[in-house]
């Protein structure tokens, strides 16, 4: 009889190899010291693996997880509520800032127009009284300039014609 394969030994160790095949394999292990030792090794390994596979959860595991999830959910809901409550406030703040800026701009425009009106109102009589002398002065200035120009041009004209 041939020795058992690793698959057969593992099946024997974890109890998945049953029936006639399992019976004959077990009988072989009782007679064969090599396969018996390997089966003992696999059995010990399977026992350790199954112990690892099912770690005992702490008694309050579920309660702790549920409490943590609930706290997280509450936190999220609160944050959402805070955001929702902050949105109108932010919108109102933006409207207030824009409105304030606009009104400041309009006030400045009105102030500017009023200042211009005031300046024009104050200056218009002055301009009215000053206008005639200004026009006369401008005329006199132009006359002087034209006279100077004609005086400087005349000799050169004379030189070119003679
Ligand atoms: Zn064997």
Topology:
Layout lengths: L5 H9 L4 H13 L1 H21 L7 H101 L1
Helix pairs in contact: 1-3, 2-3
The chain binds zinc ion.
The site of zinc ion (ZN) has 6 residues, from helix 3.
Give the key terms.
single chain; 162 residues; mainly alpha; 2 domains; 4 helices; binds zinc ion
Q: In a nutshell, what does this entry contain?
A:
The protein has helices at 6-14, 19-31, 33-53, 61-161. The chain is mainly alpha-helical and 162 residues long.
Describe the structure.
This protein is mainly alpha-helical. The protein has 2 domains: 6-51, no CATH class; 61-152. The chain contains 4 helices and no strands. It has helices at residues 6-14, 19-31, 33-53, 61-161. α1 crosses α3 (33-53) and α2 packs across α3. It is rod-shaped and about 145 Å long. The mean pLDDT is 84. The site of zinc ion (ZN) has 6 residues, from α3.
Tally of discrete structural domains: 2
Report the strand count.
Answer: 0
Instruction: Please state roughly what percent of the residues sit in beta strands, choosing from under 5%, 5-15%, 15-25%, 25-35%, 35-45% or over 45%.
Output: under 5%
Q: What value does the Rg take, in angstroms? A: 55 Å
* Helix coverage percent: over 70%
Largest sheet: number of strands, sense, barrel closure: none
- Pairing-aware structural class of the strands and helices? mainly alpha
Shape call: rod-shaped
Order of helices and strands: HHHH
Provide the list of bound ligands, each named once: zinc ion
């Amino acid at each position: 009889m041939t020795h058992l394969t690793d698959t057969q030994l593992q099946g024997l160790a974890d109890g998945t190899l049953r029936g006639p095949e399992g019976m004959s394999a077990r009988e072989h292990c009782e007679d064969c010291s090599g396969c018996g030792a390997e089966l003992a090794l696999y059995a010990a390994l399977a026992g350790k693996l199954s112990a690892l596979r099912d770690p005992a959860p702490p008694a309050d595991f579920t309660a702790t997880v549920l409490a943590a999830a609930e706290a997280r959910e509450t936190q999220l809901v609160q944050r959402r509520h805070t955001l929702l409550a902050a949105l109108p406030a932010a919108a109102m703040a933006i409207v207030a800032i824009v409105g304030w800026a606009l009104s400041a701009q309009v006030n400045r425009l009105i102030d500017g127009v009023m200042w211009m009106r005031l300046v024009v109102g104050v200056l218009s009589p002055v301009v009215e009284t000053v206008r005639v002398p200004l026009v006369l002065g401008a005329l006199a200035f132009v006359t002087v300039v034209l006279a100077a120009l004609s005086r400087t041009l005349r000799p050169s004209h004379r030189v070119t014609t003679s």
